[in-house]
Design a protein that fits this description.
Elements (H helix, E strand, L loop, with lengths): L1 H9 L4 H11 L5 H33 L4 H7 L3 E3 L2 H26 L7 H25 L8 H28 L5 H22 L5 E3 L5 E3 L24 H6 L4 H9 L16 H19 L6 H27 L1 H14 L1 H4 L1 H50 L2 H6 L2 H43 L2 H46 L1 H7 L2 H51 L5 H42 L10 E2 L7 E11 L9 E9 L3 E6 L5 H9 L3 E9 L3 E4 L8 E2 H6 L6 H10 L3 H6 L7 E2 L8 H14 L4 E5 L7 H15 L4 E5 L11 E6 L2 E6 L1 H7 L3 H26 L4 H8 L41 H8 L7 H26 L12 H46 L3 H6 L2 H17 L1 H25 L3 H46 L1 H6 L3 H50 L7 H11 L2 H27 L26 E9 L6 E10 L4 E6 L5 H8 L7 E6 L2 E2 L5 H5 L2 E4 L8 E2 H5 L7 H10 L3 H5 L8 E2 L8 H15 L3 E5 L7 H14 L4 E5 L4 H4 L3 E6 L2 E6 L1 H5 L5 H10 L1 H18 L1
Parallel strand pairs: 4-8, 7-13, 7-14, 9-12, 12-13, 18-25, 18-26, 21-24, 24-25
Antiparallel strand pairs: 1-2, 2-3, 5-6, 5-8, 10-11, 14-15, 16-17, 16-19, 19-20, 22-23, 26-27
Helix pairs in contact: 1-15, 3-6, 3-7, 5-6, 5-8, 7-8, 10-37, 11-12, 11-15, 12-15, 12-17, 13-15, 13-21, 13-40, 15-17, 15-39, 17-18, 17-21, 17-37, 18-20, 18-21, 18-35, 20-21, 20-33, 21-32, 21-40, 24-26, 24-27, 29-51, 32-33, 32-36, 32-40, 33-35, 33-36, 35-37, 35-41, 36-40, 36-41, 37-39, 37-41, ...
Length: 1520
Amino acid sequence: MPLLEDFNNIFGGTKLKNLLWTSWQSLESPCLLEHVILPVELGFFVILLVQLLRKYVNLFSKQTKVPDSATEMMHPTAIKFGFAYKLCLVCTTLLLLVHASLLLLMLNHETQCTSTLKALTSEIVQVLSWVISLLATCKISKSNAYYPWLLRTWWLCNFILCVITTAIHVHFSVTNKGHISTRECADFIGLIASTSLLVISTRGKTGTVLLASNGASEPLLGDKTEKHSQTQSQKESPYGKATLLQLINFSWLNPLFAIGYKKPLEQNDIPDVDIKDSAEFLTCSFDESLRQVKERDGTANPSIYKAIYLFARKKAAMNALFAVVNASASYVGPYLITDFVDFLGEKEMRGLKSGYLLSLAFLCAKMVETIAQRQWIFGARQLGLRLRAALISHIYQKGLHLSSRSRQSHTGGEIMNFMSVDVQRITDFVWYVNVIWMLPIQISLAVFILHTNLGLGSLAALVATLAVMALNIPLTKIQKRYQAKIMDAKDNRMKATSEILRNMRTLKLQAWDSQFSERIEALRKVEYNWLMKSLRQAAFTAFIFWGSPTFISVITFWACMFMGIALTAGRVLSAFATFRMLQDPIFSLPDLLNVIAQGKVSVDRIASFLREEEIQHDVIEYVAKDRTEFDIVIERGRFSWDPESTTPTIDQIELKVKRGMKVAICGSVGSGKSSLLSSILGEIYKQSGTVKISGTKAYVPQSAWILTGNIRDNITFGKDLNEDRYEKTVEACALKKDFELFSGGDMTEIGERGINMSGGQKQRIQIARAVYQDADIYLFDDPFSAVDAHTGTHLFKECLMGILKEKTIIFVTHQVEFLPAADLILVMQNGRIAQAGKFEDLLKQNIGFEVLVGAHSKALETILEAENSSRTNLNSISEEGESNCNSKTNLQHVHIQHDTVQDNPSEGKENDGKLVQDEERETGSIAKEVYWAYLTTVKGGILIPLILLAQSSFQILQIASNYWMAWVCPTSSDAKPLYDMNFILLIYMTLSVAGSLCVLLRAMMVLNAGLWTAQALFTKMLHNVLRAPMAFFDSTPTGRILNRASTDQSVLDLEMANKIGWCAFSIIQILGTIAVMCQVAWQVFVIFIPVTAVCIWYQRYYTPTARELARLAQIQITPILHHFSESLAGAASIRAFDQEGRFIYTNLLLVDGFSRPWFHNVSAMEWLSFRLNLLSNFVFAFSLVMLVSLPEGIINPSIAGLAVTYGINLNVLQASVIWNICNAENKMISVERILQYTNIASEAPQVIEDCRPPSNWPQTGTICFKNLQIRYAEHLPSVLKNITCTFPGRKKVGVVGRTGSGKSTLIQAIFRMVEPREGSIIIDNVDICKIGLHDLRSRLSIIPQDPALFEGTVRGNLDPLQQYSDTEVWEALDKCQLGHLVRAKEEKLDSPVVENGDNWSVGQRQLFCLGRALLKRSSILVLDEATASVDSATDGVIQNIISHEFKDRTVVTIAHRIHTVIDSDLVLVLSDGRIAEYDEPSKLLEREESFFFKLIKEYSGRSHNFNTLATQHVQSREQS
């Protein structure tokens, strides 16, 4: 009774009394309660009864059908009941007994309600409902691990009914009887039990575990269980097994903090995510949502919006509930301020107890607000994580199944943006979606409070609020347009960056790196301009945000003045607090609209990508091996890379391949050879016809696709290691010797795209991958082009005709010498099979096959002539001639004995062949130098003091305006204000507007400083990366660089400046709040200082863990992007080997690897925020108690009210200081990562002014090597050893040797792609190591081994620097055999070239590179396997062109086709990085022991050998 009187005294005479107390006093009895509750109880009773009866009917019908064995399986040996289930039974039974007891009491005594029938009916329904609930609960234990939603909803509603009935019954008993009766005690017991059931319903789990007969236990799962048995072995997530209290206070994170505080966290220290947050579970769940949408809408392309809704709705609903509670609780403080100010004015009359209870009400509201806020924010982050995982895995799966046309319409960089940027924006929207529910509640409560205080004046506030919100809508539309432009600009920049990084070797060789750097800077300039516009508008929005309370308050107060509503201090302060609360929804609306706009753009982009055309899944008909003798059958095949094209790529294909046949495909460049293989793989669109396959496939593409990792993993490719098969495979693919040379053997790590392997090594590794798979059908696309003659012979004998002799093989080849061994030869011409038959049969047909063979025969004749001429002189070699040869000044005959080939076999072993080092990761706190570098990048940080001055001025002016209103307004309605209201409001408006202008000035300075800094760091990073040596790109996956250029750069562009700024701004705000509070009650310092110390301790305890979690999360993004990039590049191979499942699973593991640190990082933020909020609530409560305890008259009630107004936000401000500091430190990691790439060791200067060569250098083109030694890295062995020789000017020099002998490295040394460890290279008397790189590379020409084309046009690829006329370009195209192809296209020179040049064949790409060299016409031309991917006829034409066009120039040729070097003036033979021989070809052929002689002998003897092989193959097949 005294407690209720106190509450009555507190709120006596106020609106709360009018709203609650007096309304119930007019009732004779609480029968209104039965009127309200009875329909709800009846409704639930009927639903529960129907559900229970339905379950029992179903159970009865099933019992008659289930056999005994099935029954035994359904019922395990034992069931272990969880604590939640036991508590549920106890509480349900207790509630049943309580209501049964109340029913007995009603039968024996009078009821409080005048209608006995209604009261009895209500209790009877309650008793029956709890009987049904008890039966349902007992039934649950045998069928489900989760309580049904219906039961949980009943418990929730019952809890609400219990709270209402208990409160009202207690009130009436105390009012009418003066004491609490037996009924009220029963109500209290029921309330406790009902509260327990509410807690159980929020968790939803029964905790029941099945005990199987073998002693193992597993959770009892229902229909929607997690089908992930493999996760049972994983480490359990502490979040998944946390109790309710641990979930509220986040103490389940304590063990992780204990580890993180002692040492820097590693990935293995972080627990797994809960199974419901795992990528595999989420992918299955999202698939299910898509399936449901498909079924409902009856469409093949389901709406991704509907799928996201179904996927997220349950978690989103829970988040929405917490958000609504948070919004509601946050307005309790402003609502009670008037009462508090009134109390301070009437303290003696109301009594201190009333003040303490009022303080308790403030504290309870803040506690509810804290818990609800932390839960909805955490829930939103968790939902974002789930959506991110589901979308990333679906984008990945789509990428693996894109058709060729779809793949060409989306570049790798663009698809990367889907994963990194668009998915992030969708997860951001998940955070903001709760604002949708909070916004109307916040505005409604604000208007209600204002109406209570100011009456009709609240309408003016509502109109002003809506006006400010309406003003934000057009601003949001503009922002949406800016965001779309920023995304487009970012896409273009990332696309160009990705392409440049991928082709960095080509750019450096051609000396185009500076021009392509300018191209990226131009794209960045476009992006920068849109960023500037967007951020300027954001600054204007900030001005509206901070100015809105001023605008709304001025409008409201003037409206009150005109209406004659008295403005007391209590009302004004309550209004101030409310206006400040209104800032949030006002600011949230444009943010919400902006995020919706961004999210919609991103969802539409992803939806568009997910709807892209896939490869045809039904194009191939698989036939069982026992039903057919044919492994491959194509009938009436018509295929096209463009499904809508009327002209097919290949047509009229009729092909039947028997099991074990060897089929060769040959033809000129662009004739459709690779397309025919693609038709068998199902990669090309089938317009008509049938394709039948019998057996498994293995595929070796023309361009080697190598995964980052060690060699063994690349060969086994997901299969278990079988030592015997592995050894045979390695031997057959001639990899044994390579393994001996590699520092780590077959565990040597391969760089990105096999960048540290030679072309031949990459090709043999992927051939070994195919062989190891032990497939039935093998498809080889020109597998011998990248290997030397000897290795090619070995591969053909040991692989195709050896280890794979029983297999069906189809191989594309330009090497005619391999054709006689084929059972069937297909000659492709203009997309059709022009001829088919055996080698001898085709020669007799005299149609077109002889052109290819004729070109080969001609080349062979050249070799034979040279061989024969050397033999005639072999026996007449005189000692004199030999000595003359050895005495030549510019020629050296070198012969290295085999026992000295490898002088340092163990060199570099300690690094285990590791090329790609782990990504750089700092540990410990972020260095002060990083902060200093960021703050002083622009103008030495001169803007920072000006920004702080502007923010301090705003804070002072804001406090001054509020102080002015609190001081001049009277404390009661009867008193008059000190000044005229017009004057009061004018001063208030002047101070407020001045403060808002300070905000505008501060926002403009922050955005300019931030964007200028971001641009400066970007430019520095770009220049440093592009000027880095090739060794950096060899050992750094592209994904790492792209991650910095994309994700980290976005942080710098849009977030970093604000995060750093808000650290300072929030400190200034909290200092202002403390100053106001301490002016009123300095005693607050007594508690504030120790609490601040505790806050700082918490922050320091939190930071080491959070910092490392943020770093690990950043690092774990890169593997996802890198794996996706590699998978896109090798999608055809992955599909051919049927490895999609393995790669998808790897992607899921990588996503979980990112989710673990990210999830625990956001959880750690909530852990800290919860504790800081509790501490600040404690400070606020203490300050309220201080104000209540001080004697009346010591403090001005108005100023005390102002202190409370500011103190309401103390918890938010105090948390925001720590939050902003931690958030800024987490974001500063992006700055740290970008700064890492601004300090990369650079190549030599582009130009050295003191050592510039003459403009006509080199004239003769003499290249002199002196004691040259090359190694790729300090920890790796030397690749070239003691190379000393001279290439004479204007001569043709051939360089030959086994695969991996150092031929390509020698070429890289000429271009200084790798700097000599020792020795020098002198060209025309100029030491190339002493001149600038641009001066060197721009004067040399090269046709590289791996042809690189850039996205753009034909002209742009031939002449990217726009140096030549169209006539010269056409002339070059004609010379390189591409003129007729380009003229046939509509756009001519502007014909498109897609990413990687995928719309041109590999041979055509190599011809483009020849065209570049023809345009450049340098004195020195280097050909690095320049004609490896073209047929013999085209090769002959190219050799003639080179001989004619470069007759007076130095030509250095690396070739595996011996006839391309046989007519050279000199031949250099390399073996294991040393010079084996160097002389004129004729002189080398005079010595039978020479390496070159053996190569020629082997090449010339091939035709005879392969004819013999063919005969043996036919005989073995006939015998079998």
